């Protein structure tokens, strides 16, 4: 049984194959490959793009999707083994996952970081508990550690813009926010770009390092794909010659108090403006997973500029997810 909850389910070669399939589907829609199939989606957190694009992907493939919101008309779910369920959680994953598996043909789960630190994020307890107990293929709708469908859409957008991903200079640049956001998206930018053979620079202020396990995984992919990876605290130098500027907020480690992230003028200067593009290549593009807090994380002038591909990137969620679903069901 196939699952796609982490990039390790595909690896660099698998990602390349799915990107090719997604590009094919975008050129020529494949029709009802998944006629009669139902995707169940359980959301522990809100979504605009992920929910809509998966629902539309299933419709376009001849199937259907059912979306459930944990705690909102659906019981709150406990995922810890041995928990004494005497608080607000009335359902355990040990029943929820196999029961849902009797109704649907594949199951997606969105469960963000529990805010309990790097080690807990790396364990990715909620999505992995569903994966252990589900009897059908699982797909991640974003978890504590990774957002693999976003990572695929990002790489499809890079491939479309530059005709390839190999050697494309991608700068993942930390950005400010009002909250210490989790690292799933920046982790996936690094992992998917490494798997795709990009020339990656991760720029962030001191104290905002990505986790060791993810960095090691990216290095492992680089050994296979030929990617180059470096880390710097110098945003200006990182942006020199960039083809892709991917700006994203993430929290420090250990997690800081919320207002310490935007209260410092030095950190506010990391918010991309047009000035940040002065030394990029002339064909540079700007990416962000969305949603984005305008003029806190990214300036209006960048989001509304000719550099921005954020809408194309969001559209590409649809095509890569159609490819991922076809693969999950053994139709690719
Ligand atoms: N990028 C992304 O996953 O968007 P949503 O949170 O709206 O699904």
Structural write-up:
- The structure is a single chain.
- The chain is an alpha/beta fold.
- It folds into two domains: 7-146 and 316-328, Rossmann fold; 150-313, 3-Layer(aba) Sandwich (Rossmann fold).
- It is 39% helix and 15% strand.
- Strands 9-8-7-10-11 form a five-stranded parallel β-sheet. Strands 2-1-5-6 form a four-stranded parallel β-sheet, sandwiched between helices.
- α3 (93-103) packs across α5 (125-133) and α6 (148-162) crosses α7.
- The mean pLDDT is 96.
- It binds phosphoric acid mono(formamide)ester.
- Residues 47-50, 142, 150, 289-291 line the site of phosphoric acid mono(formamide)ester.
Topology:
Elements (H helix, E strand, L loop, with lengths): L10 H17 L10 E6 L5 H12 L3 E6 L7 E2 L12 E2 H11 L2 E5 L7 H6 L1 H9 L4 E3 L7 H15 L6 E7 L8 H12 L3 E5 L8 H14 L2 E5 L2 H5 L4 E6 L15 H4 L16 E3 L12 H4 L6 H19 L4
Parallel strand pairs: 1-2, 1-5, 3-4, 5-6, 7-8, 7-10, 8-9, 10-11
Helix pairs in contact: 1-6, 1-12, 2-12, 3-5, 6-7, 6-12, 7-8
Bound molecules: phosphoric acid mono(formamide)ester.
Which labels suit this protein?
15% strand; globular; Rossmann fold; five-stranded parallel sheet; alpha/beta; 332 residues; 2 domains; four-stranded parallel sheet
* CATH topological fold name of the largest domain: Rossmann fold
* Radius of gyration, CA atoms, in whole angstroms: 19 Å
Note the main sheet. Answer: 5 strands, parallel
- State the order of secondary-structure elements, H for helix, E for strand: HEHEEEHEHHEHEHEHEHEHEHH
Overall tally of domains: 2
Instruction: Summarize model confidence as the mean pLDDT.
Output: 96
The number of strands is 11
Query: What is the correct CATH architecture of the largest domain?
Result: 3-Layer(aba) Sandwich
Determine the structural class based on helices, strands and strand pairing.
Answer: alpha/beta
In percent terms, what proportion of residues is strand?
15-25%
Bound molecules: phosphoric acid mono(formamide)ester
List the total number of helices: 12
Can you list the strand order of the major beta sheet?
A: 9-8-7-10-11
Describe the global form. globular
Proportion in helices = 25-40%
Task: Identify the CATH homologous superfamily of the largest domain.
Answer: Aspartate/ornithine carbamoyltransferase
End-to-end distance: 14 Å
